[in-house]
């Protein structure tokens, strides 16, 4: 794996990368036990239900886009950490949906996992998925020993932050600063981890890594802002609660401008470098609130 940002890397087929990533996820699932405690429920089938629930795969897509822009090459090592990150994200959603937290009956048009299989099963499977994510990294031979250890450290740090963010959310941190503090832990942490894992597995120099990790966290904040814009209501945890539509649009536009400025600054670190794939992911998220 080469180090440093690639100067004008070759164009990479995003569709092929997505298909290869999905194949890796299915391969990882095949290693799970088929232990069944009900006629239609096994560890593998329930984890698969969570992982393959129609999500947009924004976090792993962002990670793999960064990798392609950093090194111009996407390999099995990168798919392993991207899959582990998505497993951590899915585990957090399983727990978020539980009656004792958000009490959601549906996610992406399907019954939430606890509605489909039972509350106890959802708690246990959510717990099960976290070490499963760690094992995907630890058992991946394409990663060397030090990378495996560091990948697990990054993922565990991110998951702790997500859990802390959920606690902040339940405590209803007051005001805009409180909401942003919660978003930074609950949402942006996994985008920051995506950038950290991309830099780790692509051997990016420290200077570039530092800038890209900041970009990852900033993208996570923008992603949550878009979510809040699309779901804006009077809930105190929504950034746009009580905000008029023109002001909400202006806030999203300003966040997008700041994200573009940060990309431009990073591209200037290495002459001739363009974060083409990364920009494409950012634009897909922005399109959700401008279409």
Unreliable spans are 7-11
Span from first to last CA?
A: 38 Å
Number of helices: 12
Strand order of the largest sheet: 1-2
Estimated helix fraction:
55-70%
Write down the overall geometry.
globular
How does the major sheet shape up?
Answer: 2 strands, antiparallel
Query: Approximately what portion of the residues adopt beta-strand conformation?
Result: under 5%
Structural class: mainly alpha
**How many strand segments?**
4
Mean pLDDT: 88
**SSE string, helix = H, strand = E?**
HEEHHHEEHHHHHHHH
CA radius of gyration? 19 Å
What's the short story on this structure?
The protein is mainly α and 291 residues long.
SSE map:
Elements lengths: L13 H17 L5 E3 L2 E2 H9 L6 H14 L4 H21 L9 E2 L2 E2 L1 H5 L1 H20 L6 H26 L4 H12 L1 H14 L4 H25 L14 H23 L8 H15 L1
Antiparallel strand pairs: 1-2, 3-4
Write structural notes for this entry.
The relative contact order is 0.13. Residues 7-11 have low confidence and may be disordered. A hairpin with a 2-residue loop joins β3 (106-107) and β4 (110-111). This protein has helices spanning 14-30, 43-51, 58-71, 76-96, 113-117, 119-138, 145-170, 175-186, 188-201, 206-230, 245-267, 276-290; strands at 36-38, 41-42, 106-107, 110-111. Helix content is 69%, strand content 3%. The longest helix is centred in the middle third of the chain and has 26 residues, at 145-170. It is built from 12 helices and 4 strands; from the N terminus they run αββαααββαααααααα. The strands form 2 sheets. Strands 1-2 form a two-stranded antiparallel ribbon. By secondary structure, it is mainly alpha-helical.
